[in-house]
Amino acid sequence: MNMEERLQAVVSQTEIDGSLWHTIIHGNNVTSVKTENGNVPSVAKQLKDVRDELINGAADYLGSCLIAKNETIAVRDNALVIKSEIEQLKSDTQEFRNTAESYKNMAQTTFNSISSAVSQGIADVRNEGTTQISNVKTAVAEQVAEATAQADRAENATDSKLEKDLSNITKTTLFSKMFTTYVNGTEWYRVWPDGWIEQGGFAAKGGGITITFLKAFSNTNYTVVATSIGTNGEIYAQCINKVSTTQIKFSNTGGSANMPKSWYACGF
Predict the structure, then answer these.
(1) What is the CA radius of gyration of the chain?
(2) DSSP 3-state assignment of 146?
(3) Once rounded to an integer, what is the mean pLDDT over residues 164-178?
């Protein structure tokens, strides 16, 4: 094989390699390119920067090969007078081959690095997902255990309370827990669980008697009733003035003024 044929073979091989590289770079995410060393998958879309760099490198290489081809033709026409230039061209051609091989190795290294990074990323995502699932399972198990424990405690407490002897509970005992009561001589009061107050007592005879409650009301919207105690032909209705939340005053004359009174008040 003479020099021209060798150079032509180099150019042809370069064009073939360039076409393969073009397919590797521009192929979609399912493309595989058959090479001398086996199938090579295409570069993924997210590797655009690397892909562009490889395209530019391939373009530069093809341009350099075209220049080398033209120079080789020129050298061939002047072979008898520029033998030294042919030797130099041979050296340049070898350098181009080395550069192409270097590009190929760089591309393979880059692809391997990217493939490794993608694989590691997938592994990290799977590990994180597994960890999260495990954490959720653990949390759910803890919640179920806590709920079960609370249910057991509630059941035990209920059983314990139901097993208590209730025979000693009387109406008086029950009412003492529900109501607040107080008695002082003829006066008394009772406070219901919702805050309702009842109270009453006796008042001496007289036309202007003031009564101070044992238990103050929260406002003056309470109700008061009273009646005279005894018999008298001149008994009139009781006139009651609500002085405040703590006091009332009887204001009456005639037979009512001369009789003691019994009174009752209720409200909040």
Answers:
(1) 55
(2) helix
(3) 69
